[in-house]
Amino acid sequence: MRDAVTVSLATQAIRRYPDLAAFAAHMDGLARAAAEAGSELLLLPELAGLGLLWTDPRAGTTDIPGVGALYRAVLTPLFRACCDTLSAIARERGLAIAGASLWHEEAGRGINSGFVFRPDGSVLRQDKLHPTRPERAIATEGGDRLAAFDVGGVRMGLLICYDVQFPELTRVLVDDGIEVLLVPSLTDERGTWRVRHAAHARAVENQVFVCISPLVGDLGIPVERPVHGRGAAFAACPIDNRFGIEDGTLARAAADAESLLTVRLDLALLRLSRERSEIRQLADRRPALYAALAGNKTATPEGSQP
Whole-structure pTM over 0.90, yes or no? Predict the structure, then answer.
């Protein structure tokens, strides 16, 4: 059982890639910096390859109704090459690359898929489970599988952006033994606050580390209302006497600018927090009570006398 793991969380700036080679160079630069910082894992954001839309000459004139067609014309054909590129970088740099979700069409379904590319060449895939309204507008569908995984002997889980706002998902992963939750994201200003508050809530509820990697900057597509990502990479921890961090922010990067935040996650301290802190969320749960309350269809109405 590992006592600590060092991870690097990217605040990745949107770039208008002219070709796949430019995307590969950008990703490799982040991975090289993470490896040089001593990290075992690099977390990349949701839709990390979105700037590849600019490989199509129609990108600059695409309006809202045309976004879905542009995604299908550009991102689906590049999907496999992007996966191969990230897997090769992980092997070359000797670290895992996680998050880095990629949109693609599969069997007629639009899917937003996140990944874990391990340095041994193995690849894990986690589809986004709850597409947002803009995603559904281009016929993106949610996945139906969720699984924890190991990176270097550390149990982790991956939830893509909006998924972190559904507490049930993190609970499933915690029941499967995770200590670290990875969350790649792409949000606007209000969405940034939703993801931030949800991440802190999940850290408190489940006594886990929650790591966020956002995509930031202006995509320039669609022309009427361009995608504009906001936010900053950060790591949240439980709020208790063992960590002694009043707001639960273990580390946070500057907002809205590309950077790499490297954080040492003290797993031994996390376990101590679960066992001996002033607040023991996991140990104090009452699952039988919750099941009974959920199944009680004849509860006494509020304000009435039994």
Answer: yes
